[in-house]
Amino acid sequence: MSGLRMIHPGPRAAERVQARRTRLVPVAGTLPARRTVMEGVAALFEAAGCKGGMVSLDRVGCAPLRYVLPAHATDGVHGAWYSETHELGRATILRATAVVGQKEGASFLHCHGIWQGRGEVRMGHLLPLDSVLTEDAPVTGLGARDAWFEALPDEETAFTLFQPQGGAPASGLIARILPGEDVTAGIETLCAAHGIFDARIHGVGSIDHIRFADGSRMDCHATELMFRDARVTGGRAHLPIEVVDIDGRIAAGILARGGNPVGVTLELLIEPVEAP
């Protein structure tokens, strides 16, 4: 584990939450065998007429499956970096969340997930251009009609990161919360500002040293997480996550209220629902 804290090289951006309103529509289809995950997802969203959104990858076979872990930065610039590439010759993505957007005029995605090869269950950041589907894989997700995430240089972190673009008057949101902002408070404040009091929360990102509601912790500055059945009900957030640290240790739990600052970025798709 690491006792370091995330320090970014650039000036702190004045706007700590970036958000765009958008219509959200269901997306469903089959990713074809022998294509990369990226090719399959790109075709699915093009057919749906959406430049962005999110998709769940559950029980999806890949050979190979390539991924990275979060890691210490060694360049003297970044607050964190990525590990060397890990490869599983054949594996099943047990569950994963992919935020879909655009990079240099083409579809791209940011995916965190849990997978298993012949050995232990592992978690990380999927490399979608290098992971190939072994069989047709039915998937579901949400497409954003009016807004999308665009991979752009970010001065504060010195990373190229997904940032919300576009937008139109609508009930759904895509958003990014910037480093250092508390995850629970940030999501609740964002939803309230847009008149959303009941919603499903989808997304991926990182937290600098994690505190769970049961009192347990993940004391590492560089992590990779995804939400699982997260929601806002009556304006109050309930945020279960699964997360991996720089040593490949996996943890799961509900985020404590307060004390969970975003590490590098947190990308969100907020799907309003009727109150229970």
Main sheet overview? 11 strands, mixed
Give the overall average pLDDT: 96
Helix content: under 10%
Question: Strand-residue fraction?
Answer: over 45%
Q: Can you tell me the CATH superfamily of the largest domain? A: Hypothetical protein, similar to alpha- acetolactate decarboxylase, domain 2
Uncertain residue segments: none
Number of helices: 2
CATH class of the largest domain: Alpha Beta
Helix and strand run: EEHEEEEEEEEEEEEEHEEEEEEEEE
Count the beta strands: 24
- Rg is 17 Å
Count of discrete domains: 2
CATH topology of the largest domain: 60s Ribosomal Protein L30, Chain: A
Distance between the termini: 40 Å
What overall geometry do the principal axes of the alpha carbons give?
globular
Which structural category do the helix and sheet elements fall into? Answer: mainly beta
CATH arch. level architecture of the largest domain: 2-Layer Sandwich
